[in-house]
Structures are given as structure tokens and as C-alpha cells.
Design a protein that fits this description.
2 copies of one chain form a homodimer.
Chain A lengths: L4 E7 L1 H4 L7 H12 L2 E8 L3 H14 L2 E5 L10 H9 L3 E3 L1 H11 L6 H5 L2 E3 L3 E3 L8 E4 L2 E4 L3 H11 L9 E7 L3 H14 L4 E5 L2 E2 L2 E2 L1 E7 L2 H19 L1
Parallel strand pairs in A: 1-2, 1-3, 3-8
Antiparallel strand pairs in A: 4-5, 6-7, 7-8, 9-13, 10-13, 11-12
Helix pairs in contact in A: 3-4, 8-9
Chain lengths: 240, 240
């Protein structure tokens, strides 16, 4: 059965130091929405063993699935695989398939210590292969361990997406040229009537005047359309 | 004394659904780096009371300070203030200063139910005012409650930045035209010699060839320059 809820664990000092703008959770968020898997949490943490272990153990307990991003390369700051093995209390093993693929590609003499690091996965993992890279990601339990480099992350995620969600969300946005406070009470009442539609209000400005958006989303097209109609009628009544 | 570590708690379904690309934690990450406060974690969670309470209580226990972003407007999905009051086990009160400011601006008849919501803060809070908005943010204990709209968030954050960090980080990046695996072992040894410098390696591609970056940062300029020199010498030795 497809995962209904998921969390994303981004492992990377480069994001926390402001060097790099987070891109992978953003990509996954859009894909999960399209497929109807609820993204329940994103956590961004440093390349630190204890932070990885404790955060991963919390998230994999709390949600159907966890995607991790980053820290699976050959350098000293790539400690995701060994930390996840520790979180599951299993050995970190050299996977024979990856050793073979690396040897085929780089030759036996090209399999240096750094590349050897990349052949290691937590014992019991299944590999997540994609055409963008020789070193694959891995799945253990409900945890999917993917790369941090965006074009590889995206390719790996696309290859496992069919395991996430099975009833797409749809979203309709309504532009509003009224201050939020004028329709807040009426919108609260509508939300109460439509508990299967998520209604959000996002203020903005067009010059000096307010112009925000009311954003409705649901897995039920009929109910979504009904809620949109109700919001539109409410806004017309307030404006007139 | 200035906060040495901080976490950011982004509260917003619009980010988790992929509608909006996260911008506020990214802005804050850059500012904290410049000031020398370590951003230790970013958590993005939905507009849900229990998620806000449990995540906030974990983060404020774990780090010197927490910045929250989002959920302080007038609509039904704005539940940050009441959830944080619950997390601190204090009352949510109408703050007389905000009531006055709103009344001055909108008139007594303009202070409708939606705007009235925005006068409420957890009891014991200090206000965080900025010129971009009438409704201020609030500080309670080590938690700073800021807006989700980016231009307001940025203005509010700028107004409290002097409480975060007191010894700026600096960063130097070195471009590398070698595959990571060729210098991974040598870089590990350098990192071991420089525990006051954070060294990260970020692979990339220039056409078919690898061309990544080694990124060094530290609060100690002298040590940073020494580490950069050591990495450059190492790279020259491998390339020759």
C-alpha cells in the first residue's frame, strides 16, 4: 500500500549556513501533493551523527515514510549511511552490487578509499538506482536514503514516487482584493463546513492595497468545487 | 549574552504542499552565519496545534533560541499565538498596546473580530515591532514569534538580530576540478587537524567533467586562512 504520510530529512551544513537554498524538499513537496501523499514535516539538520540518529528515529516512528537527502558521497562529511545504520542498529556493509558496478566503471585500481565508502549501505537495504549516478541510494524499512545533489535526488525520487500516495490533491486559488480581516470570520465558518477541504489565506499587497489569495485544496474534486463556490459567494456578499 | 545556537520553526501548510518555496529560514540562515550564531535546525510543520506545541517545546529546550515564522494573521489557519501560549502553559491575552495601535489605525469600528485576533499574544510576551506592519511579533522566553509574509519576517528579524551571535563566521570556497574520491582521504586528515574550521565538499559538474567546491568556514580568520592554504597545497599535490 502506498505511503499516506511522509517526512523529509535534509542533512546538510550548507543549507543551515545559508550557503545553499534548499531545493530537494521543495521538489518533493510538489510531487507528493500531486500524488496525494501528505508531507507532514521537513527537518533540516547538520552533518552530525547524533542529530541524524535522533531525528531519523523520531520521524520514522511518526510517519509512514521518511526521505533523507544528502551526505552519501565519498568525503568525511558524508556520514548519512553510517548514521542510519546506527539508527536501525544494523551493520554498515559493502554491497556487492555497488562494488561490482564501481569496479566495472572505474577499474579495480580506480576503486579508491573514497569510492569504497560509497559502496556501503545499512545491512538489509534495497538499492535505489537511477541512471544519473553509479552509486545508488538505499531503502531500509520505511526510510529512503537519497543524494543531496539536486539532479540526482530528483531522478532517485522520481523512481520511487509510485510508493507515495494514491489519491492526488488538487488546488484552486482565488484572488482577493479585500483585507483578510474582513472575511476571516466567514472563512472560519466555511472551513468548519468543509473538513475535507484545506483552506488557507495568504495576504499580499498590490501597491498600497491588499490583494491576497485564498487557497483551497482537497483530494475530493466535487467537494473542492463546492467549497470554491461557497467562498466566491461569501466574497461577493462582503464586497457588495 | 547573545544566543549562540538557534532553530527556526516554519509553520505553514503552503510550504509543505509545495505551493510556496520556503524563503524565511533561508534569509535567517544567511544572517545568522554573518553574525556567528549557529543555526542548528530548521523544522517545517503544518498549521496544526499539536505539531506546533510539541515541536516548539522540543526546540526551545534544545537550543538557545527559536524563531517561528507564520500563522499570526487574522484567519482560522493562524493558530501560532494560541499554540505557543499552550506550549508555555500561559494565557493568551489581548495586548493593550496592540489594541490601541489597531484602534488608532482602523478606528474603533474597524477593530473587527479578525483584527481582534491579531491583538492576542501569550501572557508575559514582549512585542517585536517593525515599521512594515501594525500587528507586531512577540517574544516569550527564548522564542521569537515572527510573521510568515517574507518582507515582514525580514524586517522583524533584522530588528532583533543583535541578540544572535557575536563572532561572525567567514567562508572561503575553493573550486576543484577533480572527482571528490581522489581527495576525500586527504581532506579527512585536514579536517581532523582543523577542528575549529568546518570543511564541506560539494560535488558538481562542468560538462562531462567533475568540478565541485570545497567550502571552508570558521569564526577564526587566521585558522581559516591556514586551512585554506593546507587544502590548496593538498590539491596541487594530487593534481601534479
Amino acid at each position: 500500500m502506498a505511503h499516506q504520510t511522509a517526512a523529509i530529512l535534509v542533512i546538510g551544513n550548507e543549507v543551515l549556513s545559508g550557503r545553499t537554498r534548499e531545493a530537494n524538499a521543495y521538489y518533493a513537496a510538489g510531487k507528493f501533493f500531486e500524488r496525494g501523499c501528505k508531507l507532514s514535516e521537513v527537518a533540516i539538520i547538520p552533518d552530525e551523527r547524533e542529530a541524524i540518529i535522533s531525528t531519523l528515529n523520531r520521524l520514522r516512528e511518526q510517519y509512514d515514510a521518511v526521505i533523507t537527502s544528502g551526505g552519501i558521497g565519498p568525503t568525511h562529511d558524508d556520514i548519512t549511511m553510517e548514521s542510519i545504520a546506527a539508527a536501525f542498529d544494523v551493520e554498515l556493509i559493502e554491497h556487492s552490487f555497488i562494488v561490482q558496478a564501481m569496479t566495472d566503471h572505474f577499474g579495480a585500481e580506480g576503486l579508491n578509499e573514497g569510492r569504497r565508502r560509497m559502496t556501503r549501505v545499512p545491512q538489509g537495504s534495497k538499492l535505489i538506482r537511477c541512471e544519473k549516478t553509479i552509486a545508488p541510494g538505499a531503502r531500509i524499512g520505511n526510510v529512503y536514503i537519497l543524494a543531496g545533489v539536486p539532479y540526482i535526488f530528483e531522478s532517485q525520487l522520481d523512481s520511487i514516487l509510485d510508493q507515495f500516495g494514491d489519491r492526488p490533491y488538487q488546488r484552486i486559488e482565488i484572488e482577493v482584493e479585500l483585507p483578510e480581516s474582513l472575511f476571516a470570520k466567514a472563512l472560519t465558518a466555511i472551513q468548519a463546513d468543509f473538513d475535507d477541504v484545506e483552506i488557507g489565506s495568504y495576504p499580499g499587497r498590490c501597491g498600497p492595497d491588499p490583494c491576497g489569495k485564498i487557497c483551497l485544496s482537497s483530494q475530493d474534486t466535487e467537494r473542492l468545487n463546492e467549497a470554491v463556490k461557497t467562498v466566491n459567494t461569501m466574497l461577493e456578499n462582503i464586497a457588495s
